[in-house]
UniProtKB/TrEMBL annotation:
Name of the molecule in the record: DegT/DnrJ/EryC1/StrS aminotransferase family protein
Highest taxon listed in the record's lineage: Bacteria
Organism of derivation: Deinococcus antarcticus
Organism lineage: Bacteria, Thermotogati, Deinococcota, Deinococci, Deinococcales
């Protein structure tokens, strides 16, 4: 499976040069791209992490963490050469180098997955997480 196909779409919205940081019109030009709704693995892209810039995808269900679904999360992580770091919410990090490739957030009204756009198996991982975390 490929890296996230929305990578170029995301990159086009980031600040290309520091000197454009105060250019309101350049900002408006970049954000106009957001009108073109994006999907990956059938899940809508709903935004990007504030400081990290990782794209966020809405899961089509609410998520409440349980022993069972955290075990399934750990199984998915292992399948992708990762472990789960449980902080405020779970992060999948590669065993080799501790690179964060995904995070799963649960809110009372929304569940979402953040993915590293350059991760080689990002789209496949997104589909695996959506399937594994789906409530019974």
């Amino acid at each position: 499976m490929p890296k996230l196909t929305v990578g170029p779409w995301i990159a086009a919205q980031k600040l290309p040069r520091k000197n454009l940081g105060r250019d309101r019109l350049a900002f408006l030009e970049r954000t106009a791209l957001r009108a073109d709704a994006q999907q990956v693995a059938g899940l809508p892209l709903i935004g990007m992490g504030g400081s990290c810039g990782k794209p966020a995808f809405a899961l089509p269900y609410l998520l409440t963490w349980t022993d069972e679904n955290t075990r399934r999360l750990e199984d998915v992580a292992a399948e992708y050469g990762c472990y789960v770091e449980y902080g405020l919410y779970p992060h999948l990090k590669q065993h080799d180098g501790d690179l964060e490739v995904a995070a799963v957030q649960d809110w009372t009204t929304l569940a979402m997955v953040y993915l590293r756009p350059g991760y080689e198996r990002a789209e496949e991982l997104l589909g695996s997480l959506a399937a594994a975390l789906r409530p019974d």
